[in-house]
Amino acid sequence: MKNSSSKLLYWAVTCALAGFIFGFDLVVISGAEQKIQSLWGLSGLEHGFAMSAALWGTVLGSIFGGGPTDKFGRKRVLLWIGILYFVSAIGSALAPNVTLFAISRFIGGIGIGVSTVAAPLFISEISPAERRGRLTGMFQFNIVFGLLIANISNAIILQMMGSDSETAWRWMLGIEAVPALAYCFMCFTLPESPRWLINNNQREEGKKILGQINPTFSEAKLEETVAEIEQAGDLESGRSSVLWRPLKLALVLAFLIAFFNQLSGINAILGYAPRILGMTGFDPGESLFNASLITLVNLIFTLIGLALIDKIGRRSLLYIGSFGYIASLAVCAWAFHSYRAPFSDAADAIALKASAPVIAADISQLPEKYSSQVNSENLSESMVKEIASNSLKSAKEETGFGSSLVLICILAFIAAHAIGQGAVIWVFISEIFPAIARGFGQSLGCATHWVFAAILTLIFPLVMEAFSPTQIFGFFAFMMILQLAWIRLMVPETKGVSLEQMQANLSKE
Questions:
Q1: Using CA atoms, how far apart are residues 111 and 128, in angstroms rounded to an integer?
Q2: Is the CATH number 1.10.1160.10 carried by domain 2-190+242-339+401-508?
């Protein structure tokens, strides 16, 4: 019994490592994005395109990932995900121009998209109903762990190579090849999903793996379980009409949970955290440290969410997360409104410091607001940095508690996401679809998630130019009020329900 439990945990952890690389890839770019923009002189739209390339690949992978996952099996697809991650990491690090950089990021994005289909699906299909939430949720835990390690990795590389290094960003992106290669080798130890085997006419092999997962099952109980899986699979086309009602409801639920997940602003805030915090007066070094703090909070509250998901249920966690979202986003919007003048002065001072080499070479580039602090037309780079430091110090005195309040609100927002949507989304989508449409349904939910993630990442630099932070955070808060209404009116509880019973329950809704 203990050996079986350990084996099941090992399989879930191995599969969930796809989530670790996904999380690492998602945030590692945040430490490099400003250097990439300046290196290739990208406009706001070009920069948004380069930043969102991986997410557009994710959209493609999530849309089409269900087909190969259903046709070739979960295990084989999981292995190819690791190969795509590895190719992307090497290509991104060595890219000589923005086009090849975007292509490499796009390839990695395909791997991410397919992983959000195949990994939660595989784990949910090998897990007993009473442990399915925690085990499937390990995919999300590994995403968050990847976010944390990516920020720590970025900070270490920046510390070792210096903020002025021209190659630090390449190391930040290239180091992802190491966990990608390790994951590929570990995939060879995974079994195939027993439910996939049974529904693909490999009954005895599927039954054998079910026996390994459930060693206490008698032969009669194993036969009964296999029969339930075969029946739920609905392999006979004549019964397909029976599936339409639960499938229709599942499609709506999958679409909406993914829609609200992204309209909370989570990907935009994670991807641009250093820049958002820089708008309140945190310099790049502080912003990277705070980004690491953000991912640490994300990790801690993800663990709390996973500890509770099979106890209080998915719906309760979504309620908790929604209230946390609304409060933190609303207060953050208020802080940006109340401290907008000193925040603006602090951001300008940080931008001046970053532009010191350019201004030292051409004094006409010095913003007019700083001209009164200049006593000579022969500015050195150190003189510009000193002006910037003095201006930043003065601005920070005016912000008072403002900068810290924004940081606290963002941390609270991340905690709300981690314990709510973050812990629930991949588990919930993997549970609600009938067996015959499980790969397709997982693809739809994941594709919705990534389409909105890609759109937000693409346009967010333009949104920050066109709208105030108060308006942006206020919009996200309003969307979370709508999410709260959706949970109240539509979301069913899936805690402790077998995948086969879930299909029957949704048929009655």
A1: 27
A2: no
